[in-house]
Predict the 3D structure of the following.
Amino acid sequence: MKKIRVYSTPTCTYCVILKKYLEEKNVDYEEIDVSQKEEEQKRMIEKTGQMGVPVIEIDEENFIIGFDREKLEEALNIE
């Protein structure tokens, strides 16, 4: 089973859409609110160079920036 972390903020519309999509596909994930967790925000920026959310981390090595349904489906093997 893949370990999935979703870096998001409460005010991000695409974050809400992404989380709803993952829930509909029965994908377990850990949500990281980078507006509240500065250390996690720094980690996300260091790993991806991105300051925007959502960022999806898969198994601590694969990162998907934004809600990219095609990349997500491929990375997670979902339809």
Remarks:
- The chain has one domain: 4-76.
- The chain has three helices and four strands.
